[in-house]
Q: What sequence folds into this?
């Protein structure tokens, strides 16, 4: 792949969107590479956490590539949106836990791909925003939907209508960022959180993730029924047996993957 780098070590995959000269802006080629990369990762059983970051030290992702969109037709614009949605839906729903390591600008499509991750750990110099309305378009990589679900309708409307940029601390106050850390500690902070997740039952974590994701699009009663079914199912796993027995025997649990 040309614009996306993938490294795997100790059950953690690090995906780097790497076009630093364009502040990692997402063109069609990069979106296709991301889709391919996420398709590959979702099949890899030895990967349990995926960390997504941007190449260089200034930007996570500065949005969709404006130089590519400037002459696009409505059909081409729609196709670009659908391609990104396919890639971002894969990212959002992969069985692994995904952490966005936001190392600078997360504007437009950058904010949208960060929101498709489960968790956002952000450097102190991170800047979030949805500048699309200032370009005469709307957020088209899921922003009108995921931002409202994440921080609420009122705040999402304010950010999208004003195109205001917000800093890391403001993103944290709004619930857009899970944690703010000094820039030079960003990857370490992501790996440290990944490590804490890796020590838990990976099967349980993966089921919990899919319950949260699926439940957000359901009514509460049906979502609770779905949770009860999945909860019952976890009682058939080795990890449940081992986790509870270890607790009662006052020893560390040796959780596997089922
Ligand atoms: C293409 C981009 C880009 C982008 C930056 N660059 N963002 N190219 N698309 N989104 C390029 C610049 O043209 C420039 O190239 C180089 O990266 C460095 O950027 P500068 O502007 O010189 O850097 P700086 O002055 O530090 O400003 C950083 C910035 C600014 C604040 C992030 O670049 C900026 O406002 N970028 C656009 C942000 C944006 O509007 N994003 C939303 C896009 S719409 P050269 O060749 O001159 O060095 C979107 C829609 C999603 O995301 C849905 C679509 C369907």
A:
């Amino acid at each position: 792949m040309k614009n996306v780098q993938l490294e795997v070590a100790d059950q953690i995959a690090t995906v780097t969107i790497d076009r630093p000269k364009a502040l990692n802006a997402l063109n069609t080629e990069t979106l296709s590479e991301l889709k391919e990369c996420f398709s590959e990762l979702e099949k890899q059983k030895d990967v349990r956490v995926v960390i997504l970051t941007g190449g260089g030290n200034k930007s996570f992702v500065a949005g969709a590539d404006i130089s590519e969109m400037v002459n696009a037709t409505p059909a081409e614009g729609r196709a670009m949106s659908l391609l990104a949605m396919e890639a971002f839906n894969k990212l959002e729903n992969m069985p692994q836990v995904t952490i966005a390591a936001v190392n600078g600008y997360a504007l437009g499509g950058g904010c949208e791909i960060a929101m498709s991750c489960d968790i956002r750990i952000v450097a102190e110099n991170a800047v979030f925003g949805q500048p699309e309305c200032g370009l005469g378009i709307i957020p088209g990589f899921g922003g009108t939907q995921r931002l409202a679900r994440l921080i609420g309708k009122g705040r999402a409307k304010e950010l999208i209508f004003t195109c205001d940029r917000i800093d890391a601390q403001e993103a944290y106050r709004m619930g857009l960022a899970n944690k703010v850390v000094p820039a030079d500690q960003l990857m370490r902070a992501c790996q440290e959180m990944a490590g804490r997740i890796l020590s838990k039952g990976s099967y349980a974590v993966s089921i919990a993730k899919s319950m949260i994701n699926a439940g957000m699009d359901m009514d509460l009663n049906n979502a609770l029924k779905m949770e009860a079914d999945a909860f019952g199912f976890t009682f058939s796993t080795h990890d449940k047996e081992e986790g509870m027995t270890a607790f009662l025997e006052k020893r560390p649990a040796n959780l596997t993957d089922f």
User: Anything to note?
Assistant: The mean pLDDT is 97. The pocket of hexanoyl-coenzyme A is lined by residues 22-23, 25, 62-67, 77, 80-81, 105, 107-109, 131-132, 135, 139-141 (CB under 6 Å).
